[in-house]
Prior knowledge:
single chain; 255 residues; alpha/beta; Udp-n-acetylmuramoylalanyl-d-glutamate--2,6- Diaminopimelate Ligase, Chain: A, domain 1; 2 domains; 9 helices; metal-binding; DUF34/NIF3; DUF34/NIF3_sf; metal ion binding
Amino acid sequence: MKLKEIEQYILGLFTTGDNENFHEESGITVRGTEDIKRVGYCTNLTLETIEEARKNNVDLIVTHHDAWEFIYGLKESCKEKLLEYSISHYFNHLPLDDSDFGTNNSLIEKLGLEIIEKTHKEEGFFCGRVAEFREPINFKDLVERIEIVLEEPVQSWQFNDREIKRVGLVCGGGGFTTDVREAVERNCDVYITGEKVLYTIEYAKFVGINLIVGSHTFTEVFGIQSLAKKIKDKYKDIEIVRLKEEHLETTQNSI
């Protein structure tokens, strides 16, 4: 299968293609090869995930994140390594956050929630959701459920005693107090995201909303998994493989 055909197919999956920021937030970054037989997917493009792709004989890496410029030097190093290995790369960021099969919707489905509305608009894309459980659950059970889904420990703060019915969620980088406030304004019992700073916790405590923080990487991986599966469903001869990523945000190295 040709890379250009896959690229056009992916474009057709999104309803936000007319957004002026769409092509800045998604697309092919490196054309290492045009003939695609095996697709590897993961959240982040790093030198480590490129090595995983090489080991798995991947022709195309599909990621949620590009190698961002603010990780100084990484983008250039990744491009060099991809070309050395003749591996192509495609990323899809904010459009995937917004998409009905993307990061937020995929995690919500795994948690057994029903979507109420799209929230947290950024550059014309909705990067968050409000969702509800059919039957309320207690906070501890929700924390355990998330840890099972993400396969990693999460951080949690219980700032009210109500059972959880209504959930505000921003997969990945939703750690600003403005993000939490949007969940508060929509009467959510808990806010779930993949990033936090001190002020996230202080604000959640001040307003009395429960807070659960997983990792940026693994709160978002199911969206890119969904995209890879759609490629597989369209092109039956293509193989897909999940590329191993380290739980970097939830492990501590000791010297």
